Amino acid sequence: MAKPAQGAKYRGSIHDFPNFDPSQDAETLYNAMKGFGSDKEAILELITSRSNGQRQEICQNYKSLYGKDLMADLKSELSGDLARLILGLMMPPAHYDAKQLKKAMEGAGTDEKALIEILATRTNAEIRAINEAYKEDYHKSLEDALSSDTSGHFKRILISLATGNREEGGEDRARAQEDAQVAAEILEIADTPSGDKTSLETRFMTILCTRSYQHLRRVFQEFVKMTNYDVEHTIKKEMSGDVRDVFVAIVQSVKNKPLFFADKLYKSMKGAGTDEKTLTRIMISRSEADLLNIRREFIEKYDKSLHQAIEGDTSGHFLKALLVLCGAED
């Protein structure tokens, strides 16, 4: 699979709508929800074709024109998958991610997959914004929430990722060789002279959670030179459980982030039943980031377009809204 070039251009499918008129849009939405029943078509067409920043302006205009909360009105008019999608699109990205993390930790079980998907792929700036949004919305720090909901080594990895403290610089060749050596030792390919497994595990975590993407790409190359193995394959073989899953996600995100999401989208629609939550979360959170790149990776790997996959797996207004987010057929 071709690696995205350094500084590859990531492109979303949703952009600012030209000739944007927030008060006109607010009126359109108001009329679509007035009286008995609502014009779902009009609602989804408008909201999916505006950028997130524009949707925030529509909210403000709606409130000043009608003295009502647009989110609350949408919530009362829509239901099911469509409601989850439209309401998600209406939230500022950091608040949306914060809500997804909160939901992943609510109730009896923890949705580790969602925690991993978000924390392993967001940039420093995104993670910091999520921390602020989490505190603002839930009056508790994200770190405290993760602490009380996860445990052991997995907890430490998530808390490390949640600091948003990854280095931003380029690669350091000598250090990359040292890092690759640590990886080889922890993954039991090289002999372990240092012997102490716990401190090695911590060092491996530090490497994957705090080195820059550019540096890690070099580490993975050095690892192959040193061991003749691919680091992702080796983690899958040597590790288990949530720790394995979060490390694999970091490695895949570093190698090719759009491909990571293409795989997740494919899995959400594979086999019997659809994982609407994952499908919705990725389509919303990547719509302005790299959904065009994800589409390209999807068709290259799975020989069918994301558009076709969505069409074959969902229906009704939910399907229509997802296809607008997806953009053109590839």
Write the SSE topology.
Layout: H1 22-33, H2 40-48, H3 52-66, H4 70-77, H5 80-90, H6 93-105, H7 112-119, H8 124-138, H9 142-149, H10 152-161, H11 173-186, H12 197-210, H13 213-227, H14 231-238, H15 241-269, H16 276-286, H17 291-302, H18 306-313, H19 316-326
Helix pairs in contact: 1-2, 1-3, 2-19, 4-5, 5-16, 5-19, 6-7, 6-8, 7-15, 9-10, 11-12, 11-13, 14-15, 15-16, 15-17, 15-18, 18-19
Question: Would you give an account of this structure?
Answer:
With 330 residues, the chain is an all-alpha fold. It is 70% helix and 0% strand. The chain has 19 helices and no strands. α1 (22-33) packs across α3 and α15 (241-269) crosses α16. The longest helix has 29 residues, at 241-269. It is elongated, with a radius of gyration of 22 Å. It starts with 21 loop residues before the first helix and ends with a helix. 36% of the residues are buried. The model is unreliable at 1-7 (pLDDT under 50).
Could you give a quick summary of the protein structure above?
With 330 residues, this protein is an all-alpha fold. Helix content is 70%, strand content 0%.
Report the end-to-end length measured between terminal Cα atoms: 19 Å
Structural class: mainly alpha
Mean pLDDT: 94
Helix content: over 70%
Q: Give the count of helical stretches.
A: 19
Which value, in Å, is the CA radius of gyration?
22 Å
Note the beta-strand portion: under 5%
Secondary structure: number of strands = 0
User: Secondary-structure element order, as H and E?
Assistant: HHHHHHHHHHHHHHHHHHH
Please describe the biggest sheet, giving its number of strands, its sense, and whether it closes into a barrel. Answer: none
- The 3D shape can be described as elongated
Low-confidence segments: 1-7
